[in-house]
Amino acid sequence: MASYFDDHNISEPKKRKEKFSNPDTDFFLNYQYEEEAPTEAAYDFTQNAVSLASVFEALRDNNRIRENAQQQSILDNLVTQLLDEAYSNAKGNPPASKRFISNLPTVKITDKIKENTCSICVENFKDKEKVYKLPCFHYFHAPCIVPWLKLHNTCPICRSEYETDDPEYEKKRKAKLFPQEDSEEEWDPFYG
């Protein structure tokens, strides 16, 4: 009895060797997904994404995170969002502006802040660490939040948007924040 491939005059596909891979980082480390040579912006994005992915990979192996379902859920959502953005050729949110990142206020560690943990690395804040406070009042270690802000202009927890260096995106963001009234509406003496 002939095989399906012989009956239809097509060649049988060769079996690929199975390799052990990490789907969280494989996309960021391979350029095979791109049809053209990567641009400098794509290279910068890839470098930032690799550093961010390595942070997440280290966190994934942390036993404390595995025990805490809420933190694991946040981490899974972040990794999923990164992978979704990488696989879809959608533009997504631009990075936060360099001015915004450089002007982030550092916070003096108090007893109240010591009780909190950085949502990215899930470590408690310690006395001599550099901690940034975003305008939405979420606190993060500097080495945790800066790579995120170099990729996104949003808070990783509440998704509050911050300024970017992209003028087109800023124009759209400001239009969304301050919508213009419709000038077509007529004045109605009944409603004043």
Low-confidence stretches: 31-37
Number of distinct beta strands = 2
CATH topology of the largest domain: Herpes Virus-1
CATH architecture classification of the largest domain: 2-Layer Sandwich
Strand content: under 5%
Alpha-carbon Rg, integer: 23 Å
Characterize the biggest β-sheet: 2 strands, antiparallel
Q: How are the strands of the biggest sheet laid out side by side?
A: 1-2
**What's the name of the CATH homologous superfamily of the largest domain?**
Zinc/RING finger domain, C3HC4 (zinc finger)
Shape: extended
| Helix and strand pattern | HHHHHHHEEHH
CATH top-level class of the largest domain: Alpha Beta
The helix tally amounts to 9
Overall residue-averaged pLDDT value: 75
Structural class by sheet pairing and helices: mainly alpha
Cα distance spanning the termini: 87 Å
* Tally of separate domains: 2
Write the layout of secondary structure elements.
Layout (H helix, E strand, L loop, with lengths): L3 H4 L15 H7 L10 H21 L2 H5 L1 H19 L10 H5 L8 H4 L16 E3 L5 E3 H8 L17 H11 L15
Antiparallel strand pairs: 1-2
Helix pairs in contact: 2-3, 3-5
EC number: 2.3.2.27
InterPro entries: RING_finger_E3_ligase, Znf_RING, Znf_RING/FYVE/PHD
Organism: Neocallimastix californiae
Summarize the structure in words:
It comes from Neocallimastix californiae. Residues 181-192 have a biased composition (Acidic residues). Residues 1-21, 164-192 are annotated as: Disordered. Pfam families: zf-RING_2. GO terms for molecular function: ubiquitin protein ligase activity; zinc ion binding. The protein is mostly helical and 192 residues long. The protein has 2 domains: 21-91, no CATH class; 93-166, 2-Layer Sandwich (Herpes Virus-1), CATH 3.30.40. The protein has 9 helices and 2 strands. The chain has helices at 4-7, 23-29, 40-60, 63-67, 69-87, 98-102, 111-114, 142-149, 167-177, and strands spanning 131-133, 139-141. Strands 1-2 form a two-stranded antiparallel ribbon. Helix 2 packs antiparallel against helix 3. The longest helix has 21 residues, at 40-60. It is extended and about 80 Å long. The N and C termini lie far apart (87 Å). The model is unreliable at 31-37 (pLDDT under 50).
